[in-house]
Amino acid sequence: MYRWLLCYRYLKTRYIALASIISVTLGVATLIVVNSVMSGFASEMHERLHGLASDIMIDCHATGGMPDPEGHLREIRKVCGPAIVGASVSVSVPSMLGIERNGQQIGRHVNLIGLDAKSYEKVSDFGKYLMHPENQKAASFELRESGYAPDRKELLDAGWTHRRRQVQQQRQLDEYMAEDRRLMAEMRRQAGGEMPAEESTDDESAIEAASGPSMGPMFSDELLASSEGALPASIDPMKEQFPGIILGISTCSVRTRDSDGEVCDVYYAKPGDDVRMIFPNAANDTKVVNQKFTVVDLYESGMSEYDSTFAFVRLDQLQEFRGMIDPKTGVRSVTTIQLKLAEGSDLNAVRDALRKRFPPELYAYNVQTWRDLQGPLLSAVRLETMILNILLFLIIAVAGFGILATFFMIVVEKTRDIGTLKALGASGKGVSSIFMTYGLLLGFVGSGAGLIGGLIFVDNINWIAGLIERITGQEVFDPTVYYFTEIPTIVEPFTLVWVMLGAVGIAVLASVLPAIRAARLHPVQALRFE
Amino acid sequence: MSSPIVLAANGLKKSYHKDRIDVPVLRGVDLEVREGEVTALVGRSGSGKSTLMHLLATLDRPDEGEVLFRGTRIDNAPRATRDRYRNRDIGVIFQFYFLLPELSAIENVLAPAMIGKSVWSYLKSRNEYRRRAEAMLDRVGLLHRAKHRPSEMSGGEMQRVAIARALMTDPTLLLADEPTGNLDTETGKEILQLLTELNQNDSLTILMITHDDEIAAGADVLWRMKDGLIETQQSARNEPLLATSAA
User: Nearest-CA distance from A417 to chain B in Å?
Assistant: First the structure.
């Protein structure tokens, strides 16, 4: 009993000891904040990664893909049984995206994916990341009138409105150009044979060649003629659209800051614009397919890796363009099968079963879970969290040495009291337990304060980030880097418990040596001198 | 008819080591304390009387000889037994009071009870202990200062609190090491009067260690110590302690 009373009194009267545990408090608070932010990031990332990739992906590496996806799915269902709750097939092909903007061609390397929006929705979050509110509910490859991303001023006019105005302007421009050419020809004719028309064209091409890269159309008529493109003969762009395509937002936009430091996006192509895709066909003697698409929506997942490489089109259209339909039987081929598993099923077990069914020696298939796919990223985050935890625990351990030193001082200061207690019949164990209990209480107080401080910090982290931003002028959480508008945090009770236990444990450990010293103190020596 | 022996020392020897030289402090001390008596142990500084008291209180162990409490050897008893002996069977007061500065007067008095009991058994009967502690403070005339810290008290008051603390567990024997050594004559007299009253009214056995012949003169039995040996033992006097010192 006396030990609790004494500890309580020591705690209340000895502020130097409280100072020694401030570092414990800070360490605990930092640990909690760091862990919350890291797990917030990690879970946001998991959610995104997992939302984009289905649970299990079977990739076929052959250019022609795997024929008869229904047969494959039957086989897969046989192997995996009831674990599979959803499946979708798609075609994925590396391709080049060409955007024409202000007379310039912008080329991007993208991964063109042909998918069936309905079944794709079942295996991963796809619609969720689209811009148009209607498409978020049910993705469609038809251009919508307007109303893309109401919160983005750059996309306000996207849609048919934008398309019509663009076409109008283009037509006007063409008219002016034609008029211009006509006038030029007339002037030449009036000048009278001095400058033959043929020569002038030669000069022009010579100048063009000398001035470096061509500013003319990237896709020459010859190239277009030689490719296998299944171009619609001619459409009226005012009323009609090419096959729809959904572009990853970073493939067709850049995020920068204007002179005021405000984040702004520049779009090379918006919904309503036409873009060109160039990709190989599925035949054995590969040829280039060149196809025009109309952007019908943009896709923003927040994962720059996906946003900058993906473009989505309709599965049946892509199969058609690539010649993946057997002309005789009408059987279609796909390159990827995506599976969604029942909640809580063992991804790795299913993957291994599928690998056994489709051994890599016989099939050019790659069976992966979404974790395998993002393995390096996930393990990097895990490693980072672990290292931060170790470093911060070292800080608390350093605080432990502070406690050790302070406690030694207190034991020396309390020598006479220790002697008195022993003279009153206190055992060595009892005396040492005073200091152990003291360490325990200090640990509790310190880490408790740290816990509360850390939780308050986490709770207001975005406000604090804003405050720091205002004071220093330095953006703490740069949305151009992270794609999150707010710092995500998750407080895990388990983490709190082990951080608290660790901190209290260190405080108790640090008080062991002083406590032993107090217990060993000879009462006569302690009482002899005044 | 003589009363039974409460505490006895037989041939106690103790020496301290300093720079490989043995400094003998006690060289074979025999001593008896009888129940209900005030025994005084007189000696000059360095005569070994404080060391003797530490041995009798089992705060230290003798090199040779034995300490008997009610006929049972206590100096080589297990640690727990000695702790219990110090806690319940004897009460100790010191020249410098040795109160715990963080605790109030009443808490200091309660300390032996807290030390001797486990948390639960203490909490179970804490009202009872509190009443006894208040009674003890009342006995030494300091109930009105129960909430005060030692730093707010005078030397005489602190010594009274120390006496109340020593009596908390109702010990058989009170060991007093120069209880007036740090007090002025008047206050010292008051303390001595209190001790005499305790001896006479509550028949508390007291072993008092002092260098002052005048104080020792009032004791029932007087042992004189010199150079680590008992020199003389004077027979009992029936005059009360206070009468002598007041004269």
Answer: 6
Residues A335, A386 within the same domain: no
A419 CB within 8 Å of a chain B CB: yes
Helix A2-13 and helix B105-116: axis angle, to 10°? 140
The reply to whether A288 and A338 lie within a common domain is: yes
Tell me: pLDDT of A456 over 90. Answer: yes
Choose among B101, B102, B115: nearest Cβ to A425: B115
Topology given in CATH for the domain delimited by B5-242: Rossmann fold (3.40.50)
Q: Judge whether A109 lies within some domain.
A: no
Residues of B within 8 A of A427 (CB-CB) are: 79-80, 83
Question: Domain check: are A348 and A387 in the same one?
Answer: no
For B195-237, the pLDDT digits (tens) are 888 888 888 899 988 888 888 877 888 888 888 888 877 765 5
Q: How many separate domains does chain A show?
A: 2
List, for residues A131-166, the tens digit of each pLDDT value: 888 888 777 888 888 777 777 777 777 888 888 888
Asked whether residue A523 is assigned to any structural domain, the reply reads: yes
Pair A366, A237 in one domain: yes
A283 and A182: one domain? yes
Domain boundaries, chain B: 5-242
Owning domain of residue A474: 2-47+376-528
Complex ipTM tops 0.95: no
Could you write out the DSSP letters of every residue in A200-251?
A: HHHHHHHHHHHTSS--S-SS-HHHHHHS-----S---TTT---SEEEEEGGG
Find the CB nearest B115 among A2, A527, A530.
A2
Residue of B nearest to A413 (CA): B101
* β-strand partners of B146: none
| Cβ contacts of A212 within 8 Å, gap of 6 or more | none
A398 plus A318 within the same structural domain: no
Whether residue B149 lies within 8 A of chain A, CB to CB, comes out as: no
Q: Do A522 and B102 touch (CB under 8 A)?
A: no
Distance CA(A133)–CA(A129), nearest Å, equals 10
Is A87 a member of any domain? no
Residue partners of A137: CB distance under 8 A and separation at least 6: A127
Asked whether residue A221 is assigned to any structural domain, the reply reads: yes
- The verdict on a CB contact (< 8 Å) between A425 and B85 is yes
Cβ atoms of A362 and A60 closer than 8 Å: no
CA-based nearest distance A343→chain B, Å: 51
What global pTM score does this model have?
0.68
Do A279 and A389 lie in one domain? The reply is no
Please indicate, yes or no, whether residues A261 and A365 belong to a single structural domain of this protein: yes
Which residues of chain A make contact with B107, given a CB cutoff of 8 A? 5
Q: Could you tell me the two tokens for A298?
A: 């943009």
Contact status of B84 with chain A (Cβ, < 8 Å): yes
